[in-house]
């Protein structure tokens, strides 16, 4: 097991990882920018190293400073959290070259999944169902026309170096195709320095359902069920649930087994998320994320398993603590992302939190790094906390969520809490009746 882990992140996820390390008796080091000197994770860590000025590229993204912080403190492993360097293959490779363990998959697995064409090709080879479309990159308009005619319109053109919604163009008919292909390629080239694009059938009303998987790096894979993340705004998740209101236990076991077997065959190590669009009872792979995700606590709530403990165990060579048959799904969990933003315009609202009071009671978890008197710096993303609620079933979960939202107080700044108080009383949400476009339509209709 590791003696000392360096946490290369900030905010609620740095605290989340720190807690797991403490429970496992592992010493902690955090790195921070000058803007985060007063942050909770800095106060609670055994050691801290200031690695640069506020901009992320000079601090949380500065690989050399982070490696230096490892050498100075004698850390034997790095947990990258999510965002920042968590899916940077070069960072994983550099740490390996310094004999420091990256708590995550190999640089090569990160690289494969970062290239969306290669990721899709790999998924298909491993028996995961993918969206119908081109086999690889498409450059010629003629070829695009042939593929689109074969799969049928509408089609979507995606950047191979994109992901998370960046660099996509929809063509509703052959007349749209030439412009869609040209703009997708030039935007991809400008944004990512790589103009490779591919074509897929455009699914019009899918849900976004993702499978939590884990590999032990020794040829074993398990799944921890799915999360439904369909409630998004501009590709930012807002509300996530486990399990999906759209799936039954048989469907879960079937797609779960497919994913677990694929992870085993890939020889993958650590936590991963296989993202699907789900429409008319069918799953279609779109991307795989090679990190711990923001919404992992809903999976922890229904399985009772600490996923950061598992990441640390696997990275240290100790293997997973569970086999597939040990993983049981209990009840229902919902996460609300509390952002320091205007609840209608989503404009960021940094500043001083004058009063912060979190809800409690059975089935309530709040992951947050803020406190009364904390000043939110303007340099980073606006997530200030996550409310995670668990119940024996979805109805109980929603009752508890409504009550927890009533108790939650954040004064001094604007937050997205009022949005959640509206959503929890909405009939479609109560019925689990929503797709990836529901939230944006709801917000537009409330204007
Ligand atoms: C799609 C799609 C429809 N059809 N692919 C957006 C983010 C990126 N991960 C993939 N995305 C989409 N891919 C096909 N073939 C619709 C989206 C999409 C979306 C997906 C998940 C959650 C929210 C979304 C919002 C708009 C579009």
Poorly predicted sequence stretches spanning 5 or more consecutive residues: none
Main sheet record = 8 strands, antiparallel
For this entry, what is the oligomeric state of its chains? single chain
- Helix and strand content put the structural class at alpha+beta
User: What is the CA-based Rg, rounded?
Assistant: 22 Å
Mean pLDDT: 97
Question: How is this structure best described in words?
Answer:
With 447 residues, the protein is an alpha+beta fold. It has three domains: 4-103, 3-Layer(aba) Sandwich (Rossmann fold); 132-201, 2-Layer Sandwich (Dna Ligase, domain 1), CATH 3.30.1490.20; 207-446, ATP-grasp fold, B domain (D-amino Acid Aminotransferase, Chain A, domain 1), CATH 3.30.470.20. It has helices at residues 11-23, 40-44, 63-73, 89-97, 107-114, 116-125, 141-151, 174-192, 249-266, 296-303, 307-315, 394-407, 417-423, 427-430, 438-445; strands at 4-7, 27-33, 47-52, 77-79, 101-102, 155-163, 166-171, 197-201, 207-216, 221-233, 236-242, 269-279, 282-289, 332-339, 351-352, 355-357, 364-368, 375-376, 383-391, 409-411. It has an eight-stranded antiparallel β-sheet, sandwiched between helices. A five-stranded parallel β-sheet has the order 3-2-1-4-5. Strands 7-6-8 form a three-stranded antiparallel β-sheet. Helix 1 (11-23) links the parallel strand 1 (4-7) and strand 2 (27-33). The N and C termini lie far apart (54 Å). The structure holds ligand MV4.
